Amino acid sequence: MQNSNKLSVIIVNYASKHYLIACIASIYDKIGCDNLEIIVVNNDCREDLGFLSQYQNLTVVNLANNVGFGTANNIGVKKATGKYILFLNPDTIIDTANIKAVFEEMEQDCQLGMVGAKVLDINKNIQKWSFGQEEVNLRSLIMANLPIFKNKQPIFDNKKELAWVSGVAFIMSKQLFLQIDGFDEKIFLYYEDVDLCKRVKKQGKKIKVSSEIVITHFGSGSHNDKNKQKMDYFLAQDYYFKKHFGLIIYVIVKILRKIFA
């Protein structure tokens, strides 16, 4: 049964065992353990996560093979009993987390569908590509690849409505997540967050970032094969553009990729 006061934290592990202790310790330290459950979906059968049994209110779901980031999160959501879910990458630590304030804002504004964290890199700067005010479309893709915009630092503003937030860390209700059918399981890795956000916006819901949740994201915690990483990214990008913008835009994206390469 869903508990209206409980937060479910879902973490998908893949080649990130070495990050998990610090990540989970920061959850208990900054959020506490009252009305909290942590669900770790182990997408890496090579890694034994038995050491996590020492933690209370924590469940490990071991999968036989790597089913992809979105699918693994969907499996975690099915196990979750909280009203709200914090999706969190394993290669993160929580610096501050006033979860109560986020809950109150979401309860007061029924149109607020998703709240992203303030994501910092290891130098404590706002992490690039952790949120966006413009939807991910052909125009934004071209702009992002132009030298004048490529290295532009994002400006954090927790009052502005956004088009998308990164899947590194965000909160939404379990009810809304299930209503829009969760992550698209045809996406193995990458673009699953912007795809989810696009469907949240289609429901007439707002997306924001909050300074009440601040995390440090170490990044590249599970990527050893850069060629495989690039292939997964382009496959997801192709699928996203074809799904939301049609065949012609999909073909243009593939052409632009060769131009910008």
Number of strands: 10
Helix content: 25-40%
| Count of the separate structural domains | 1
Query: What does the main sheet amount to?
Result: 8 strands, mixed
State the CATH class. Answer: Alpha Beta
Give the CATH superfamily: Spore Coat Polysaccharide Biosynthesis Protein SpsA, Chain A
Please tally the helical runs, counting DSSP H or I stretches of 4 or more residues. 9
Order of helices and strands: EHEEHEEHEEHHEEHHEHH
Structural class, by secondary structure, is: alpha/beta
Can you tell me the residue ranges where pLDDT is under 50 for at least 5 consecutive residues?
none
CATH architecture: Alpha-Beta Complex
Backbone CA Rg:
18 Å
Q: Taking all residues together, what is the mean pLDDT? A: 93
What report would you give on this structure?
There is one protein chain. By secondary structure, the chain is of the alpha/beta class. It has a single domain, classed as Spore Coat Polysaccharide Biosynthesis Protein SpsA, Chain A (Alpha-Beta Complex), CATH 3.90.550. The protein contains 9 helices and 10 strands. It has helices spanning 17-30, 69-79, 99-108, 138-145, 147-150, 174-179, 192-202, 226-245, 247-260, and strands at residues 3-13, 36-42, 58-62, 82-88, 92-97, 112-120, 131-132, 164-165, 169-173, 206-217. The strands form 2 sheets. It has an 8-stranded mixed β-sheet with strand order 3-2-1-4-9-6-10-5. It has a two-stranded antiparallel sheet with strand order 7-8. The longest helix is centred in the C-terminal third of the chain and has 20 residues, at 226-245. The protein is globular. The model has no long low-confidence stretch (mean pLDDT 93).
